[in-house]
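hi!! sorry for the late reply, been swamped w classes. u asked for the two structures so here they r. pasted raw, havent cleaned anything up. first the sequence of the first protein and right below it the tokens
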Amino acid sequence: MSEPKIQSVLIAALGGEGGGVLADWLVHCAREAGLAVQATSVPGVAQRTGATSYYLEWRRAPLRAGEAAPVLALSPMPARVDVVIASEALEAARMMERGFVTPERTCLIASTSRVYTTVEKMHMADGRFDNARIETLAKTLAQRAILFDMEAVTLQHQTVVSAVMFGALAGAGVLPWSVEVCEAVIRASGKGVQASLAGFHAAHAIAAQGATTAAAPAADHPELLEVLRLGAQRCEDFQDLAYAQEYRALVEAVRPSAQSSDALRQAWTEAARHLALWMCYEDVVRVADLKTRPERFARIRAEAQAQDHELVDVTEHFKPGVDEIASILPVAVGRALLAWAERHGKTHFHKGLHIRSTRLGGYLMLRVLARLRPWRRRSLRFAQEREARQAWWAAMQALAARSPAMAQALAGLPQVLKGYGETQRRGRSSYDRLWQAHVQPALDGHGDLDAAAAGLRQAIERTLADPEGRLNAAPRAQPIQWFKKIPS
């Protein structure tokens, strides 16, 4: 069959990424080349920021004398799209799910970078969609797949991803006009020309080489040494060097030998990862520190696309309760405060606060909280976390030699512990319930450990799927009210 006279391009971009600019550039290029062209856009929602799909069709060659103008479509049809380009991996998956990418016709150009959805961020464990599945699907469904990290190229050249996508289209050889036409259109735009051209040429070179990915997917089970290195860095950032050395000592003491089974090595690798996360638990001191770091303000300004002369005002929303206050107090004082709140029915009291961290008063308030880090070791929350953590680590050591399967399941138990305040209280309740039902019987020598491992793993999965604790909540008494019937 001869090549169709009409070429179709579908652009999938998130809000603020310049998808409309890219569509305009393509329209201008097509007109410069003397081609009939049409472009439409369809707004959507990506649960991260507004997502818009841009669809373009143009005639592959100029009209000859006496030839009728083509009829161009307003929207894409499944299995009828020649080129699909996506600025983000999950947007590429969405295009594939809708049937726009086919092995008979479509060239897929997509970024391997991710902007995580609300659902992914809310998941109690690692709720991220597996990028390796997207890559496999792309290579299976597309006639040709060009995958690379567009976000990295964008940041490297201080431009917007639309320029990178434009360069990838040109480098893939799917545009019926020259690179010089693309460059002229970028220059004619008059905005960020040098940065746009730099990003354009970098992406052009990558796509011309037929890149499949610029960043290999993370391994399913990272090496223990790498986890140890990253965990120690996190602990030092959270507290101090001594805390990082404490973490290293704990992990080094249980490092499996080269003769150990794969299951045992995986168990201790996962345990080391969760140990670092547990030792760096969230509290108001940590939150205040993270919210006032210069790199955070720089990131916010970059996301808002603020110029150097423009002001960006950031308002932090806090809702501290008695638990949060007690958690950072010395052990005896914190327990006394909790006891007082229990006696007076104040355990669920919260106070909403709006603090502007970009104003002097708000910033200083948060920095004062952040400076409490040296006192954290004396706090009630630190003592509580250390006691529970030491019991879990001791259980890992006791059960790992007897059942690697049980060790693997137990290594994932700390996943149910999250955040602070009400979230932390629910997580602690779930943790205690799972410990008493599955871990303590195993430590006491009751039942088959492999069966217990399967039960614990399933219980953790159910708990993570029910972060609010509704399925395991105790029934509450509901009084019945009787009303006297009024005669009609």
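now the second protein. again sequence first, tokens right under
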Amino acid sequence: MPRRFGQHSKSAAVHAVSFTALTGIPEIIVGTDLCSLLADTLDAQALVPKDTDVLVIAQKIVSKAEGRYVELGDVTPSQRARELAERCGKDPRFIEVVLSESTAVVRVAPNVLIVRHRLGYVMANAGIDRSNIGSLPGHERVLLLPRDPDVSAEHLRGELSARFNAQLAVIISDSFGRPWRAGVVNIALGVAGLPAVIDRRGERDRDGRVLEMTEVAFADAIAAGAALAMGEGAEGTPAVLARGLQWQAAPSDGQRLIRPTREDLFT
């Protein structure tokens, strides 16, 4: 059965948000038509998308379909990669791939390598993954993030909206660690069809005070909620349909969520 998580307010007009995992999605291979696969899966579960529904899709299946694999056997580590590998205890070939996807190394510690990804994300290992990517005998391969998650999200949004004659939104999500907080949560890498950030500065709270700093990471919040239905291990449910969300702000892409370097006080 699809997993559903709902939240209800205590106000007179009850507002509910649900997250429904799409089940039965097979292993994704290079060239898989994700639009058709996701549409067929929605049909099989009798889920008819509506305007403002949001499809949250795990980055991993997008990367797989796009063929974002690198064979470690084909990688020759640089001196810089070897030096970093000594400090963090990782495979120098893996480090070389991380460096190829990064613009800066932020932190290095035993078993930890935090970098600034070429798209601006500050993250561990440039988001490069070895888990749940399918094993091939005699191969050591890793999976990179999509080349441009916003472009991928917009492509999926356009195709699926046309298929179902509904104005859908799409989020491509990935799990992130956070400074000063244990554990990981899902965040939005690519966003299409909804506001990634909702700026509430200038509004007033219940006491009439003007909000001066409040910007809501709307797409990240949706991605985090969807992760409860998606799972982080062997669940095999890499897509979730979120329903009941409301917004008025104009759509923006996932780059809107990245704090400009000049404002980054933490890295």
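hope this helps!! also noticed smth abt the second:
Confidence is low (pLDDT under 50) at residues 1-13.
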